[in-house]
Predict the structure.
Amino acid sequence: MTKSLEKYLKDNLADRATVFAPGQGEVLDIKGGRITLKITSNMSQDQLGVYEIVLEPDVVGAQLHFHRYTDETFIVMEGTLAVTHGENKDNANAGSVIHVPRFTPHAFANESDKPVTLMLIFNPAQSREGFFYGLQQIFNAPNFDPAAFTALNHKYDSFPIIARTSAAK
């Protein structure tokens, strides 16, 4: 075997692990809760994004929408998270895992009187952190800008589903 071929067959082993203790990660405070960036697009070469989200009572995490290019997984750590998927709605308690493949209409909210903590996973990540930075600016601004919110959603593969009235059906 030639030396040049050996270098292609040899694995380069190294410890590249990242460990986040509870509370660690970049924290984005947003009206109604906070998002802590754990595993980011840069860390995973855009393959995976893991984010800890805390929603205060009676806060909507996301209205009904779908993704074309990403799957989304919710892992409820504490409290009860209301998750709508398709025509169904689940009140997911701590320990629940809900996987929402692309093209599945879904929404989530904290409809309880206690905070909810969840891990949100996007696969692939597709630079999802940009979406969260944009949300922080939009929701923390003195006035809500619906055009900016729509543009942000579309840029980051979130397509809102507008509820139709019975007259429009």
About this structure: The radius of gyration is 19 Å. The chain is about 20% helix and 40% strand. The first strand starts at residue 26 and ends at 30. The first helix runs from residue 3 to 9.
